[in-house]
């Protein structure tokens, strides 16, 4: 077997899983199973919250080590399942390392949802969370309108390429201002609180927080702490954005009045 190609395949599988929000122990386990296909007596995989290290060692041969940094992470369970399926097929000799590498490259490059579906997803989350928080039919409509504005703001910040903190803070700011304006001028019977809470649900880092707990319980304290801190920073950004939006609108309305 081409060990260097195997290392590239294993590191790519780990990178995709880590970037898709998988737990650290799951990434390491998948990589180690794939590394067992090599002829090296020592095969190690170390995964952290922002990167991974893979090593094949043999006293009689050159050591092979690969390091990959994963700066951006999201949640994509479908990609995790696809990588696990490829790993199982590879470990059971159903596919070759070349086929596994090609399939992983395809997974890395493909986009499951188009921008249109992502736009509709944000609007749908905003609208249909309103009844859960006790909203009326008008609140659902209002939350949907806020979701449209949030989706547009999300497209804007992705073009500007702000960091995660300012992205979430700006989107939350837009949500707060939009909900207040809609209630003030267009749908006075709506609850601005329900509209804001419903819209920011797509920004709340619930999955990241849960993953950090699972990493911590599995003994991956470094990754668990890093992801916990990441979730806290996102939550603070959302809270700061909403608070600033409400305060700014109140100050603006007092000034023009």
Q: What's the count of strands?
A: 3
Principal-axes geometry comes out as elongated
Strand content: 5-15%
Low-confidence stretches: none
Q: What gyration radius follows from the Cα positions, in whole Å?
A: 23 Å
What's the helical proportion of residues? 55-70%
The largest β sheet comes out as: 3 strands, antiparallel
Strand order of the largest sheet: 1-2-3
Mean of pLDDT:
89
Number of helices: 10
Count of folded domains: 2
Give the SSE string: HHEEEHHHHHHHH
From the N-terminal CA to the C-terminal CA, the straight-line distance is 76 Å
Describe the protein in words.
This protein folds into 2 domains: 3-109, no CATH class; 115-256, no CATH class. The protein is mainly α and 257 residues long. The model has no long low-confidence stretch (mean pLDDT 89). It is built from 10 helices and 3 strands. It has helices at 3-19, 24-35, 77-91, 97-109, 115-128, 137-160, 164-186, 192-199, 206-217, 221-256, and strands at residues 42-48, 51-57, 64-69. Strands 1-2-3 form a 3-stranded antiparallel beta sheet.
């Amino acid at each position: 077997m081409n060990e260097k190609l195997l290392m590239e395949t294993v590191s790519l599988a780990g990178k995709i899983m880590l970037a898709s929000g998988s737990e650290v122990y799951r990434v390491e386990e998948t990589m180690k199973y794939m590394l067992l296909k090599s002829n090296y007596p020592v095969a190690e995989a170390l995964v952290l919250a922002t990167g991974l290290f893979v090593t094949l060692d043999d006293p009689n041969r050159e050591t092979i080590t690969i390091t990959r940094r994963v700066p951006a992470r999201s949640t994509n369970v479908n990609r995790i399942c696809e990588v696990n399926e490829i790993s199982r097929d590879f470990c059971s000799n159903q596919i070759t390392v070349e086929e596994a590498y090609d399939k992983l490259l395809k997974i890395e490059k493909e986009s499951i949802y188009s921008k249109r579906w992502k736009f509709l997803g944000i609007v749908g989350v905003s609208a249909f969370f309103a009844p859960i928080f006790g909203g009326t039919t008008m609140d659902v409509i209002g939350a949907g309108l806020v979701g449209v504005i949030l989706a547009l703001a999300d497209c804007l910040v992705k073009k500007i390429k702000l960091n995660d903190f300012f992205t979430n803070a700006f989107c939350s700011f837009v949500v707060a201002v939009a909900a207040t304006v809609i209630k003030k001028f267009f749908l006075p019977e709506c609850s601005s609180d329900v509209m804001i809470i419903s819209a920011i649900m797509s920004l709340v880092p619930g999955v990241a927080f849960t993953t950090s707990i699972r990493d911590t319980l599995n003994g991956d304290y470094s990754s668990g702490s890093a992801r916990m801190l990441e979730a806290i920073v996102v939550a603070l950004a959302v809270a700061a954005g909403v608070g600033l939006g409400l305060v700014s609108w109140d100050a603006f309305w007092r000034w023009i009045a």
